[in-house]
Design a protein that fits this description.
This is Aldehyde dehydrogenase. It holds the Pfam family Aldedh. Keywords: Oxidoreductase. Belongs to the aldehyde dehydrogenase family. This protein is globular. With about 450 residues, it is of the alpha/beta class. It has helices spanning about 5-20, 25-40, 45-55, 60-85, 120-130, 145-160, 170-180, 190-205, 225-240, 255-275, 290-300, 350-360, 375-385, 420-425; strands at about 85-90, 100-105, 110-115, 135-140, 165, 185-190, 210, 220, 250-255, 305-310, 310-315, 320, 320-325, 340-350, 365-370, 390, 410-415, 425-435. The chain contains 14 helices and 18 strands. About 40% of the residues lie in helices and about 20% in strands. Bound molecules: nicotinamide-adenine-dinucleotide. Nicotinamide-adenine-dinucleotide (NAD) binds near residues 142, 144 and 194.
């Protein structure tokens, strides 16, 4: 590893920031265009790395990682000048004459810690916001996607301003050393356990954090909806990247035993349609990231009746798309975030019970619902809390750049994408400008005995 010591990296970037290199709009747009070039020209290398780390197909690498990040860049380039324009604010009559505005200023040097499951997207999409807002950034990719981490460490200094952006590779020791440094913002994506470590480290310097975490996102299915179409949408969202997606439906919450029974057949059929009779042979189906996660996931197979799937191959870390029925709500598969290709179906008698089930657990990163009824949608919107709420399609809300992407409670704090990234990576400074003359403020000066009568 050729990493410089964290302290010297942060000092270098802080010097760049203090010199003001990141402030001009022209610098920000040139960096975003350079990041665009990195993705376009570096695409073959990134695709190879994603395949090596996760056996991602080139199509998935494009739609969920490279193309996704390009969209985020293009959206930002299109709107950045407008987003950076100072925003006028109303001044109350008592303070007139005066002008007020909100001005966005960069925070300084930020740290982006990213996970292994979408190792390009989850490193570079936050970087888009950090650069657009005029910050310097240290990027810490995940050691569990080593090929992608190495590709980013090679490409970033080749394309981006090295006085403002640095990649520090490594695992726990390197991240721990980085967290000793004082940053102006820490943007962390990963598990809640490490999120707590990051937040505690940030507290020492009063550094603000965004924590993009996970959790168990339910897919509620109500009678009356088209179950074949519903199953296709759930299977698409669940088995993408072999289920290793923070916004994947974690489990199905079926209302009524009949819905659950029909779903078993429809989910099985949808899996066959998308991945063929033997998903192991499908070039579109990924592998589990490492042995630890593979062992964790195969241990969950005992927590229900296997409707379809269950086959696994330790050498390849292959686990078939699996549906489990008759699952006990207190079993392991229903207690921890699955983060893999195992889809339990839990049955509840009615919508009230479904809402109570959701509200009885941690607030999820997303709640998905498949329903034919607007009143169900209204009740879910009003009576549950989640990072996002999706009707009819899982995961895709994160591809709408004008929507904030983030969690709530145990699924995280803070949000990003589009203008929301700018909000996260800027300070919104309040500016009040009141002329000294005429001195209309003299009414507020002591002696207060003079103004007593007016209040
Ligand atoms: P991970 O193991 O790759 O860890 C994430 C980052 O934390 C890595 O860069 C890693 O080096 C660092 N890290 C790990 N242990 C650390 C420690 N003790 N101290 C300091 N840094 C440490 O990723 P993960 O945690 O396995 O990611 C999976 C989780 O992330 C799931 O819960 C998933 O839902 C969540 N996730 C959330 C989002 C989102 O956008 N909300 C996206 C992807 C994943």
């Amino acid at each position: 590893m050729t990493n410089d010591a964290p302290h010297s990296v942060v000092s270098r970037l802080r010097a760049g920031h203090s010199a003001g290199i990141t402030r001009p709009l022209s610098w920000r747009t040139s960096q975003l265009k350079a990041l665009r070039a990195l993705l376009v020209e570096g695409r073959p290398g990134l695709e190879r790395a994603l395949h090596e780390d996760l056996r991602k197909s080139p199509t998935e690498a494009w739609t969920t990682e490279i193309g996704f990040t390009l969209n985020e860049i293009d959206h930002t380039l299109k709107h950045l000048e407008g987003w950076l324009r100072p925003q006028k604010a109303r001044v109350p009559a008592t303070l007139q004459p005066a002008r007020a505005r909100i001005v966005r200023e960069p925070l300084g040097v930020v740290l982006i810690i990213s996970p292994w499951n979408y190792p390009v997207n989850l490193a570079l999409a936050p970087l888009v916001g950090a650069l657009a807002a005029g910050n310097c950034a240290v990027l810490k990719p995940s050691e569990l996607a080593p090929a992608t981490s190495a590709a980013l460490a090679r490409l970033v200094p080749k394309y981006l301003d090295t006085a403002a952006v640095a990649v520090v590779e490594g695992g726990v020791p390197e991240t721990t050393a980085l967290l000793e440094e004082r940053f102006d913002h820490i943007f962390y994506t990963g598990s809640g356990g490490v999120g707590r470590v990051v937040m505690a480290a940030a507290a020492r310097h009063l550094t603000p954090v965004a924590l993009e975490l996970g959790g168990k996102s339910p897919a509620l299915v109500e009678p009356g909806v088209d179950l074949a179409a519903t199953a296709r949408r759930i299977v698409w969202g669940k088995f993408l990247n072999a289920g290793q997606t923070c916004v994947a439906p974690d489990y199905v919450l079926a209302i009524g035993a009949t819905t659950a029974r029909h779903l078993e057949a429809e989910l099985t059929e949808a899996i066959g349609d998308m991945y063929g009779p033997d998903p192991k042979e499908s070039s579109d189906y990924g592998r589990i990231v490492n042995d630890r996660h593979f062992e964790r996931l195969t241990a969950l197979l005992k927590d229900g009746r296997i409707v379809t799937g269950g086959e696994h191959d330790t050498a390849e870390r292959y686990l078939a798309p699996t549906v489990l029925a008759e699952v006990d709500p207190d079993s392991s598969v229903m207690s921890e975030e699955i983060f893999g290709p195992v889809l339990p179906i839990v049955t509840v008698p009615d919508l009230d019970a479904a809402i109570a089930f959701i509200n009885g657990r941690d607030k999820p990163l997303a709640l998905y619902a498949f329903t034919a009824y607007d009143h169900t949608k209204a009740r879910l919107a009003a009576e549950t809390s989640s990072g996002a709420l999706g009707f009819g399609l899982p995961a895709a809300h994160l591809a709408v750049p004008s929507l904030p992407f983030g969690g709530v409670g145990e699924s995280g704090t803070g949000a990003y994408h589009g203008v929301h990234s700018l909000d996260t990576f800027s300070h919104r400074k309040a500016v009040l400008d009141k002329p000294l003359s005429p001195d209309t403020w003299s009414v507020a000066y002591p002696p207060f005995s003079r103004i007593k009568k007016t209040i």
